[in-house]
Amino acid sequence: MLDAPVANMIRILKPVSTPERTSCRLGTDEAWICAREGAMVASLRPNIEAFLPIAILLASDQGCDLQIDDLLEDGYFANLDLGFAPFVSAFYGGRRPTLHRSGKAVQSKPATSGKSALLFSGGVDSFYSLRRLLDDDIRPDYLINIDAGAHGTNNLARRSRLKNVFNVADKIGIPTVVIETNFHVLYRAPHVRCATIRNLAACLSLFPDVDTFYYSSAVAYGAVSFQTGREHGIHFIDHAVASNILPSGVRAIEIGYDATRLQKTAAIVRDDLSSEHLDVCTNAPYQADWSSGTPLNCGACIKCLRTIATLEYLGELERFESAFLLHMWRNDRRRALEMLKRSDEPLDQEVIELFGREIGSPRSRIVSRFWRKP
């Protein structure tokens, strides 16, 4: 029997799936997830869990409750209704939606494959996570690259970055799964505001074929902050997402809370894979025009400048000359630092602080902790 309905309510129906696509009716819209290319794990599963986070975001934004036309077990339903829904309301400022379900499901242990996947984009955090896993003799079965709004509508930029991810995957011998969604079309917030929700939710369409997902934190534990997250992006509080949207049997393991961005960069600088394939650029037109043999990164956007400055601080910029266009940094270094100084992003300000104090001693301490001699 359905819970008592309210007048203002969004309804989410059970998903339907084909091997490459799963979708569901969400209010008057269709939400979908596709696996368009790369290694096919198996059929995408009609898991309503993959669509519930975006449904709750929409319900909160529109001031509605949410009617879930499916059975959910008590513990998972409580996580969503008492954990994730209040988080969404507090973080984004919308109304807290009340959730209604068709009925209770009996909790049972799913038959899983025991396979794992690392969410991988090619940035500093991704390479750090890959390095830590491999150093600990933990080899993910797949790399997953998700398009859930990071590139807007620039498909050429998307293709260039995917080519780089495939090149990394080929070199380490781990197959890649590429997932696309329309979550960013349904909930039109900037990607930095909800990337973790979109990405982890999309991963749930692979369960139970994949039951463990490794993903990268952007900050160390000391920088975790709800208020900073509201002001600068969900990466400052994203562990609160995983703790409240995962159904029974799924693990999301975040890597990187043990290191600052500076320490992560120091950990990967002697890795030939990262020096050839590091991709941090946010200049979509540059990425769209990228061709083989030219640097992956424009060298002039804020993320490029932040990374270049960090590499110079570590004394390792020369190793990344093929990855970055360095004209701006070398010809107008002062202007580059001024651009970083004007940014209100905490990660940019951390880099500026490096250039205001003595370099030698801190650099030696960081390198000795994280580098492994060849």
| Strand-residue proportion | 15-25%
DSSP helix fraction? 40-55%
Q: Tally of extended strands?
A: 11
Distance between the first and last residues' Cα: 64 Å
**Main pleated sheet:** 8 strands, mixed
- Shape descriptor: globular
Oligomer: single chain
Low-confidence stretches: 1-6, 357-374
Overall residue-averaged pLDDT value: 88
In terms of structural class, how would the helical and strand content be classed? alpha/beta
Rg result? 21 Å
The helix-strand sequence is EEEEHEHEEHEHEHHEHHEHHHHHHHH
User: How are the strands ordered across the major sheet?
Assistant: 2-3-4-9-8-7-10-11
What's the number of helices? 16
Please explain how this structure is put together.
- With 374 residues, this protein is of the alpha/beta class.
- Helices cover 42% and strands 17% of the residues.
- The chain is built from 16 helices and 11 strands.
- Helix 3 packs across helix 9 and helix 12 runs parallel beside helix 15.
- The N and C termini lie far apart (64 Å).
- The relative contact order is 0.12.
- The N terminus and C terminus are likely disordered.
